[in-house]
Amino acid sequence: MSKVVLVVSDMIFRTKICSCAQAVGVSLEIVNSLDEFTRITGEGSPASVIVDLEQDEALVAGLIDAAAQLSPRPKLIGFCPHVRKDIMDHAKESGFDQVMPRSAFATNLPAILGEYAN
Fold it and tell me: Which of 27, 67, 89, 109 is buried most deeply by CB count within 10 Å?
């Protein structure tokens, strides 16, 4: 089972993502801080890091930097409300591999997580 790190503070949406991950056979590690991310990734590079881009800017920037130091580098996937195009554009420019509106992320969640199922 591939490991995916999840950085999402919305408890209801986090529950939805966790349920979907379990259904498709993906192991999720949930973190809320850069320290937790560093601790978790010290055990090995995850396949992907999924980030709610409305998190604290310093946390998102730190995750980008920390992920870049991992080998192999995990795929960075970010999402936020569609009205926050500024955040999505910044995430793309900063190194996220895939950025999408929250609605598209929710709709495609089984396929997105399915990429990491064994």
Answer: 67
